[in-house]
Amino acid sequence: MTEQTLSADGKAAPVPADAGDAGYDKALKPRHVNMIAIGGAIGTGLFLGAGGRLAQAGPALAIVYAVCGLFAFFVVRSLGELILYRPSSGAFVSYAREFMGEKGAFVAGWMHFLNWSTTGIADITAIALYAHFWSFFTPIPQWVLALVALAVVLALNMVSVKLFGEMEFWFAIIKVAALVTFMGIGIFLLVTQQPIDGNTPGFSLISDHGGIFPAGVLPMVLIVQGVVFAYASVELVGVAAGETENPRKIMPKAINSIMWRIGIFYVGSVILLAMLMPWDAYSKQESPFVTVLSHIGVPQAGNVMNLVVLTAALSSLNSGLYSTGRILRSMSLAGSAPKFTGVMNKNHVPYGGILLTSAVCVVGVGLNAVVPSQAFEIVLNFAAVGILGTWAIIVLSHLLFVRKAKLGEVERPSYRLPLSPYTEIATLIFLAAVIVLMGFDEVGRITLYCLPIIGLALVAGWFGVRKRINMDVFEKTKL
């Protein structure tokens, strides 16, 4: 197999071809990819997490969202350049294989699997908790609701990639519509100076309540780790590239849009929230959007926002099953994952990997039955490690790609990560700093305790598969 990519000067250069990309149905349309990019940048980290973080750090949360969002953009922009160099459904696993060898692909793939299989447990737990908000579902045990949610999303994922794209399209529409509606209401209240709970909206609610750093700088620094995880899905747009008709045309626009969406929806929403009510009026027990809407008497505000966060959790579960199926297939064909994860059904869906991820999620159903109050926090610790590992592999792969380009071994596309290699180095330092910051948080320390266990598991796993590694799956072609 031979592919070609165009450099900035228009010359063709040979690139390797990954056999793991064969067999997929190129059914994702530009609107699907654009909405997958939006959906990856908007989730429960904003709809729910912003309330507790506002109460902890005040308006400085907007700065944290902006800084973390910038580094998240560097990660996805690095991935974007690699996509234009060689689109692949194996995404960062395939790129790690090319620039770091199969060991790199092994680590990248299993860290991604760790992230999304445990995030899947968190998602089905969240879905069950959100469903209990409505009295109709209250009598149903949490584990039953979690199992039903998993079964429904699993069944839909097995049908076709087009159905996955449609689901993500409408999930993203709901999330964006909710945010746009809230921001419209908030701007109206700000312009008309309508009092909210006895407070007149405006910048005075920030300046008169301790300024931008009402709790000091330290709380702002300590919430960085939590904010990073709010952006944990941005890299999924890279997996979708392998099932898109014209990724080199579609991806730059989709990836570039992530930056301004982060600016508007995350930074803009937090600034707006801080100007509508005092920062200490928010809490982690309630969505900050519900807090505002309930104080202005919007009927059914709680029901509407609960539906939105339920949609966000379903979207996350849907994306996790989709991406791990493709990543595991890429690994399976090289021998880094069980053979059954490489099989496809007649609809060109890699169902083996999807079923393996679902099996881990079933463990989450068990957690919901045994320790329902702790299931969410337990799995998030492992997901955090997977996120940081995946992002680091993406940036390292890009750094090695740029190094090869300087040696004349490959040619970079015209769509590039700005200020490379400084942006990659800064991003790696930032990710290392996030790990250090975990040590200052009780839950974060548990995550750090997991690192040696995960490291040993990866080493043991590699020794278990190294004899059956087949690099022929990754054919380096020369013209």
UniProtKB/TrEMBL annotation:
**Alphabetic keyword roster:** Amino-acid transport, Cell membrane, Membrane, Transmembrane, Transmembrane helix, Transport
Q: List the InterPro entries.
A: AA-permease/SLC12A_dom (IPR004841), Amino_acid_permease_CS (IPR004840)
**In its keyword annotation, does this UniProt entry include Iron?**
no
Q: What protein name does the entry list?
A: L-asparagine permease
Pfam families from the UniProt entry: AA_permease
Q: How does it sit in the membrane?
A: Multi-pass membrane protein
Q: Which organism is it from?
A: Amycolatopsis japonica
| Annotated compartments | Cell membrane
Q: Name one GO cellular component term.
A: plasma membrane
Gene encoding it? ansP1
Regions crossing the membrane: 33-51, 57-76, 113-134, 140-157, 169-191, 211-237, 258-279, 307-328, 349-372, 378-401, 422-440, 446-465
Highest rank taxon of the organism: Bacteria
User: Which residue range or ranges hold the Amino acid permease/ SLC12A domain?
Assistant: 32-469
Q: Which GO terms describe its biological process?
A: amino acid transport; transmembrane transport
What family is reported? Answer: Belongs to the amino acid-polyamine-organocation (APC) superfamily. Amino acid transporter (AAT) (TC 2.A.3.1) family.
